[in-house]
Each structure stands twice: as structure tokens, then as C-alpha cells.
Hints:
By secondary structure, this protein is mostly helical. Helix content is 66%, strand content 6%. It folds into two domains: 1-11 and 55-96, no CATH class; 17-51.
Amino acid sequence: MALDLFLIANEVVLLINNADIYALAKDTAAGTAQGRRPQEVLANVTTRIKAESVPLEVLKKHSHARVDLIEVCTHLENKGMKVRAHYLNTPNAASR
């Protein structure tokens, strides 16, 4: 969920399904446990996320007259604004 919120706040929509994101998480954990270099593990995650995401603007351009897709885009824009405006995303937020 944190990844989704981070991407939505940056106007990017993750299109990967739950089973695939779970498999990616397991592969990531296994890679670390198997001693793969962190850079290699990170590169794999980054490549997969880039391949399975789309900028919100692109999604909006392809929504045309599809009311359901227009509603989804509007919802995601509003969610992104809420995440960006949240107190913890301000310079005044206390770090842990």
C-alpha cells in the first residue's frame, strides 16, 4: 500500500496485480537472503515497477468518453493530493 500511495502522490499508477506484487516481494526477500547484491535486487524491483506502471496523465489521455475510467482518474488525482497534503509529508513533520 505504501508503494501505491507513493506512486499515486507522484501521479503514477501501478498496474501490477496483487499476486504479482506478492511474488515480486518474495523474490526480493529471497534475493537478499541468498546474498544477491542490494543494487541487483533494487534494479530488479525498479525495472518491474517501471514496466508495470503508467503516468496518470497517460491514463487520463486514454480515458476519452469512458465514464468509469474518468472517475478512476479523478479519484486517483484526489488521493494523490491528499497524500501530498498530509502533515507527515511536510517539512514540519517530526522524523522518527
